[in-house]
Each structure stands twice: as structure tokens, then as C-alpha cells.
UniProtKB/TrEMBL annotation:
Residues 7-68 form the HTH cro/C1-type domain. InterPro entries: Cro/C1-type_HTH, Lambda_DNA-bd_dom_sf. This is Putative transcriptional regulator. Pfam families: HTH_26. GO terms for molecular function: DNA binding.
């Protein structure tokens, strides 16, 4: 199964913003924020995504990326062949 990746680090680097400044804006602890940066989360709060988009001036699509794992691709093609026959 794939996973969601948040492009937070990329946005921070492009805009030359510190993690501390962003945590202050979001009003969340740095430890929680670091979990999002490392893709170590189970759920994403919609309000957090809205705040990040407002802060960075980007869309949710710019911020969230689906990363497909190789085993998923193999499974997809295997199942696709079943349905075609």
C-alpha cells in the first residue's frame, strides 16, 4: 500500500522559513510538526492542511503527494489482468 507524503520541507526551503516560525503560526508543538515532516502520521487534520496552504500560498495538491510502493504496482497489474480476461 502507498502512503501520503507532505511536501512541507520543500515549501519551507523554497520560502526560507524556519520550522519554529511555522509551528508558532500553526500553534502546534514542534514534536507533532516533525511527525508530519517525516510522514509519521495516521491521519491528516483538514484544518492543518488549510492552515499550511494559507501560510505557503499553495494548494492542497502542492502539499500532499501520494507515493505508490513498487509492490502496489505489481498487485495492480496482476489484478488488472484478471479483470481483462
Amino acid at each position: 500500500m502507498g502512503y501520503l507524503h507532505l511536501n512541507i520541507e520543500k515549501q519551507l526551503t523554497e520560502k526560507d522559513i524556519s520550522k519554529n516560525a511555522l509551528c508558532s503560526f500553526l500553534d502546534i508543538p514542534r514534536a507533532n510538526f516533525n511527525r508530519y515532516c517525516r510522514d509519521e502520521f495516521q491521519r491528516i487534520d483538514a484544518n492543518l492542511i488549510c492552515k499550511l496552504c494559507a501560510f505557503f500560498g499553495c494548494t492542497a495538491g502542492d502539499l500532499i503527494e501520494f507515493v505508490e510502493e513498487e509492490s502496489d504496482k505489481a498487485l495492480y497489474y496482476k489484478n488488472l489482468k484478471k479483470f481483462k480476461t
